[in-house]
Write a structure and sequence with these properties.
The chain has 21 helices and 27 strands. The chain has about 650 residues and is an alpha/beta fold. Helix 6 crosses helix 8, helix 13 packs parallel to helix 15 and helix 13 packs parallel to helix 21.
């Protein structure tokens, strides 16, 4: 039996003004775009938050909620939560009633996007303090410079939204002065070049934020809790820094803030530090929260990769913060607080820090998903119900797709057996955890494996299932999740003794020579190059596209390219390999052939092909056969896990 861990500090009650919280775990505001088109809370949004409320978080802070009808630059139709009119009060009252019934206190982040509005049309240009467009690639439109009248109007908008939130039953509000949004733009010399009373020295730049706090306080009285979120270090030249933040924190408290929520960053580093990938160490903002806590006497919320409960507990124990915000960890597992409270760490479905869906998809296609939790945004529809009839299932393949299908099917009451030809579970996802900075995948694989055993799945390792296995077990349903293998391209020389695959390298089946050509500069090729370079190999990546790692989300890609550069990995782009020779490759660039020679090993990372022969072998033997994951079509783990979740529920 595994030892249960009890945390002393994370589950102590705490008060923010008059609001008493049952524990120190905060769900921070994270955009989902799940609201209705008019900005009111949809059933989908309520279901999403209700799952996290039932999961045990002490305080839930609802995502960025619009205070002005033009604040979203025409984005209202894509699901931005709104609080800019009294007509929203009844819908939010229904929302807060559900959250309270589920056992959580609930706040709402009041927000104006400012100049960081995506360039997508709408009702005029974005608003900002100065004629400086945001340098972020998502939003580079020139903002409309706010007049004094605009500023006064916006202050009143925040104040009225605070009143509405209280009337709608929220236990608190949070004013968003973080991450380069409108209030932050006024606070920072990075974005504020005004010469009137709202710009210039630090106190003048703070005036907008302070007047918003004062006006909001005047609408709700002395006892209603108001917190203020800000980036204590914007991590850009000329941006708000920690020294300045230490000076302004007491001013925020004096103006009416009952707690401070300490983050870092602006949009230009949104996918590197605001939402940090697995390359970034956990607890990246603790240094800032700890210093701010010394400057004020109100509760401090720390945020930033704090989903490891042991670390979160120590942050509080050591007095570095009073509460910890767990964001993506609650995306991945809404029940994380309850599991931690019970000491069931092994049952946590861990966030991998991939950022492919929770932030990159949100920023590009305005869709919220989670790589490891397909239920995000579909909590009601994907509730697991018992099957009408228990069936015998054979799942072939212990990668993420097969394990998810087996887990869900077993929870539905089916008799499930899973075969995996390797001696370890995880499939391609296990191999993906081997390169540098990818180790946060491992806890999720362990979670999946643990759930198989807990749900009663019979797991057979080190044995390949075939048609004879099907004849012997006589399953009523077979799920083929046999994954993929590296594509061997039709290029002369691929059968040479100096040619290996990236999978051979990542699983340490081969030892390369000191000088390596990586044939393929996608995610697999670049991560394999990263591993080889860390072992001292001289690596040259050859990629046919104009850029390498183009299939990697921006945050992880930034740090991957940084490591490759630091390790002096050479990159040849827009080059097509024509043939492999004894000491290198011949490539075509700009219509001319050139040789990259003096190499010892050629590593192929040029794509994958499905492995699904079993489906053909058992055709006619089993009435119901599902081919999922890479076996159906090579893709990313997100698609594999989602496919497993879907097919498991369909049986």
């Amino acid at each position: 039996m595994e030892e249960q861990i009890r945390l002393e500090h994370l589950f102590r009650p705490i008060k923010i003004k008059t609001m008493e919280l049952k524990n120190r775990i905060v769900m921070p505001p994270m955009g989902t775009l799940m609201a209705s088109e008019d900005g009111s809370p949809s059933d989908r949004l309520i279901d999403y938050y209700e799952a996290r409320a039932r999961g045990g978080a002490g305080l839930i802070i609802v995502e960025d909620t619009v205070v002005h009808h033009l604040a979203a630059f025409g984005m209202g139709e894509i699901g931005l939560a709104s609080m800019y009119d009294d007509r929203f009060i009844p819908g939010w009252k229904r929302f807060t009633d559900r959250m309270h019934a589920a056992g959580a206190k609930v706040s709402v982040e009041l927000w104006h996007i400012g100049r960081q509005a995506p360039a997508m049309g709408g009702e005029g240009p974005p608003w900002g303090p100065s004629p400086l467009p945001c340098p972020c690639r998502y939003c580079q439109d020139m903002p409309r410079v706010m007049t004094i009248a605009d500023i006064e109007e916006m202050i009143e908008c925040f104040a009225q939204a605070t009143r509405r939130a209280r009337e709608a039953g929220f236990d608190a509000v949070e004013i968003c002065g973080a991450h380069g949004y409108l209030i932050a733009e006024f606070m920072s010399a990075y974005s504020n070049r005004r010469t009137d009373r709202y710009g210039g020295d630090l106190h003048s730049r703070m005036r907008f934020a302070l007047e918003i706090l004062q006006a909001s306080r005047s609408k709700v009285g002395a006892d209603f809790p108001i917190t203020f979120r800000f980036s204590a270090d914007e991590r850009v030249p000329g941006g708000l820094n920690l020294d300045e933040s230490l000076a302004v924190a007491p001013l925020l408290v004096a103006a009416g803030a009952d707690g401070l929520h300490i983050s870092t960053g602006v949009y230009i580093n949104a996918e590197t530090y605001i939402v940090a990938p697995m390359s970034v160490p956990k607890g990246l903002n603790i240094y800032a929260a700890e210093q701010i806590k010394k400057a004020v006497d109100v509760p401090i919320i720390a945020v930033g990769k704090l989903n490891d409960p042991l670390m979160a507990d120590q942050v509080i124990a050591q007095g570095k913060a009073d509460l910890v915000a767990i964001g993506r960890g609650l995306y991945a597992d809404p029940e994380l607080p309850n599991k931690v409270a019970a000491g069931h760490f092994e049952d946590i479905r861990w966030c991998t820090g991939c950022l492919q869906e929770c932030i990159h998809a949100l920023m590009t296609v305005y869709t919220t998903r989670c790589q490891v939790n397909p239920e995000v945004g579909r909590e009601r529809q994907m509730a697991i119900a018992p099957a009408a009839k228990s069936k015998r299932l054979l799942v072939v393949g212990g990668g993420p797709a097969g394990m998810e299908a087996a887990r869900v099917a077993a929870l539905k009451g089916h008799d499930v057996t899973l075969y995996e030809k390797e001696t370890e579970l995880g499939g391609q996802f296990r191999i993906a955890s081997i390169p540098p900075a990818k180790q946060e995948i491992i806890p999720f694989i362990k979670y999946q494996a643990r759930q198989l055993y807990k749900s009663g799945v019979k797991v057979v390792l080190g044995q390949e299932a075939n048609a004879s296995t099907v004849d012997e077990l006589k399953p009523e349903v077979v799920v083929v999740a046999t994954g993929s293998k590296h594509l061997i391209p039709d290029i002369p020389g691929t059968d040479g003794e100096n040619v290996v695959t990236a999978q051979d390298v990542l699983t340490f089946m081969v030892r390369t020579g000191p000088r390596v050509v990586m044939a393929g500069g996608g995610m697999v090729g670049c991560e394999t190059a990263d591993l080889l370079a860390s072992y001292g190999r001289d690596v040259t990546i050859v990629e046919m596209l104009p850029e390498i790692a183009s299939d990697v989300a921006p945050g992880p890609r930034f740090f991957l390219l940084q490591r490759l550069a630091e390790q002096k990995v050479k990159v040849v782009t827009s080059a097509t390999i024509q043939r492999i020779v004894s000491d290198g490759v011949v490539v075509s660039r700009d219509g001319r052939e050139e040789t990259i020679g003096g190499m010892d090993t050629i590593v192929l990372a040029m794509g994958a092909v499905s492995v699904n022969e079993l489906a053909k072998e058992i055709e006619g033997k089993v009435s119901e056969v599902h081919v999922i994951g890479d076996a159906q079509s090579p893709a990313k783990a997100t698609e594999a896990i989602a496919a497993g979740a879907q097919v498991g529920r369909s049986i």
